[in-house]
Amino acid sequence: MLSLLGGAFLGWSLGANDAANCFGSAVASRMVRYWTAAALCAVFVLVGALLEGQAGIETLSSLTSIDLEQAVVITVAAGLTVTIMTVFGLPVSTSQAAVGAILGIGFFNQEVNVSGLGKVVACWFGTPTGAVLVALVLYKLLALVYNRLQISLFQADMLLRAALVVAGSYAAYALGANNVANVTAVFVGAGTLTVFMAALIGGLSIASGVLTYSRGVMETVGRKLVRLDPFSALVVVLAEGLTVHFYTVLGVPVSTSQAVIGAVLGIGIIKGAQTIKRKTLYGIFTGWFLTPPVACFIAMSIYFALHLEYVPK
Amino acid sequence: MFKFLFKKEQQLESLITQYLENLTRTQEHFVKAMDTCLDEGLCGEFAFLIEQTHKFESKADEIKEDINVLMYSRALIPESREDIMNLLEQVECIPRIFELILHLIRSQKLKLPEFIVLDVKDLIRISVESCDLMIKQIDLMLNNRQGIRALMSTIDHNESHCDHIERSLMIKVFESNIDRIDKLQLKELIIAMGEISDQADRISKRVNILNLKRRV
C-alpha cells in the first residue's frame, strides 16, 4: 500500500489544482458556496473515474511495461514535475507530467509503445484547439437559444446559475473520468491494481484534493475567469467539459487547464477581444513544451540514482 | 420547477417591486404637496404632505438597504447585482429631489408668484409623467417585455419639453419686478424642479443600455 502514496499525492495535487477549472468561476463570484461546489466536484470526479476512467487507464498502462518500483518512480517524478513547474509559476498539465515520466522509464526499459504515444501527443495538440472550436460553436448555439427566451431578469439569472452548477458538475465528471489515469494507471501497468481499484483509489485521491485544498486555487483561478461575463463563463466550463469528455472516450488523458485556456481563446475570437494576455500565453506554451521533457528527465534521474551501486576498487 | 432553490431571488424580485411602488407613493405625496402649495400656499396640509413624502423617502432607503443586504448574501450573479445596485442608486436621487424641492419651499418660505404658477404646474406634471414612465420602463426591463426603447424616446421628449419650460420660467422670473433675492431663491427652485426630468432621462437611458447588455 505504501507504494501507492506517490500516486495518491499526485491525485491529491491534481484535485486541489484542477477543481478550479470546473467550479472556479461560480465560487469566486459567490454564485455557489465553496463547500457546495467542492462536494459536487468531489462526487462527480469519483463517479467519472469509476464509470469512464477505464479507457485512459488502459492507454497509459500500455505505453510501456513497468514493475512496481518503476510505477512509484513515475508517480513521484510526475508529482515533483508538477510542484517544480508550479513553483516557477508555469501552467502545468498533470497528464503531460505523467506521460513524460512514463516515457523516461520506457527509455530505460528500451520499450515505448510508439503508436500509443503518437495518439497521446496528437490529443495534446487537439485539446486547446478542440476547445477553441467547441467554445465557438457552443457560444453561437446557446446564444441563439438564450436570446429567444422570454424570461425575466431574475429567471435569466437563476437559469445561468443553475446552468453553471450543472456545467461545473459535468466538467468535474469529465475531469475524474479523464485524469484518473494520470494517478493510478502505472500501478495497473505494474500489475499491482485492477482497473476498477485504480479508478476507485485514483478517484478518491483526486476527490480528497478537491475537498481539502482547492479553495485558494478556486478563488484565484476563478477570479480570472469571472472577468468574462456569466454567459461566457458558462460556455467556457461547458466547452472544457465536452472537450475533456471527448478525449476520455478516446482514452487519452489531457489537461483540463489547457481545455479551459482554449475555450477562453474561443470566446475572445467571438467577442473580438483579447481574453488572455500575450505574456500569459507565452507562459502556457512554455509550460506545454517543458512539462513532458522535465518529467522524463526527473523520472530517469530518480531511477538512475536508485540503481547506483558502490563498487570498491 | 426549481424555484425552491432560488428563494433569495424571489425575495429580491418582491423587494424591488415594493421599492418601485414606494417610489410611486412618494411621488403622489410630492404632487399633492406641490398642488397644495401652489393653490393654498404654506399651510398645515402642506406641512403634513412634506412629512408624508419624507416618510416614504425614508421607507425607500430601508427597502434599498434590504435589497443590498440580500444581494450581497449571494442572491443574483455579480454582474446583475452591480447593475441593479447602480440603477437603484440613480433612482434614489428622484425622491431626494422631491424632498429638496419641498424643503426649499418650506425653509425659505417661498411664495410662488402668480405669473409662473401655470408653468410650474406644467413642469411638475411632465416631470412626474417621466418618472411614471421610467418606473414602467424598469418594470419592463426586469420582466423582459418589449417597449423599453419607445418609453426612452417619450422620456427624452419630455425632458426636452421640461428644459424648454425651465428656460422660459427663468426668463419670466428675471424679467419680472420681484425682489432680487426672491429671484435667486426661485432660480434655485426652478433648477431643482428641472432636475427631476433630467434624472428620469438619465435613468431611462441606463435602463435601455442594461436591457441591451442582457443580450449575448
Explained architecture:
Chain A has 313 residues and is an all-alpha fold. Chain A contains twelve helices and no strands. In chain A, helix 1 (5-28) packs across helix 8 (195-213), helix 1 (5-28) packs antiparallel against helix 10 (230-250) and helix 5 packs parallel to helix 12 (278-306). Chain A is elongated. Chain B is elongated and about 65 Å long. By secondary structure, chain B is mostly helical. The mean pLDDT of chain B is 92. Chain B has a single domain (9-213), classed as Up-down Bundle (Methane Monooxygenase Hydroxylase, Chain G, domain 1). The two termini of chain B are 25 Å apart. Chain B has helices at 7-40, 44-71, 78-107, 114-142, 148-175, 180-213. Chains A and B meet through helix 6, helix 7 and helix 10 of A and helix 1 and helix 3 of B.
Please give a quick description of this structure.
Chain A has 313 residues and is mostly helical.
What oligomeric arrangement do these chains adopt?
heterodimer
**DSSP strand tally of chain B:** 0
Low-pLDDT sequence parts of chain A: none
Largest sheet of chain A: none
**Largest contact between chains:** A-B, 24 and 20 residues
What is the assigned CATH homologous superfamily of chain B? Answer: Phosphate transport system protein phou homolog 2, domain 2
Instruction: Give the name of the CATH architecture of chain B.
Output: Up-down Bundle
Mean pLDDT of chain B: 92
Give the radius of gyration of chain A. 19 Å
SS-based class of chain B: mainly alpha
What would you call the shape of chain B? elongated
C-alpha geometry of chain A: elongated
Structure classification of chain A: mainly alpha
Helix content of chain A: over 70%
The average pLDDT score of chain A comes to 89
- What is the succession of H and E elements of chain A? HHHHHHHHHHHH
Distance from N terminus to C terminus of chain B (CA atoms, Å) equals: 25 Å
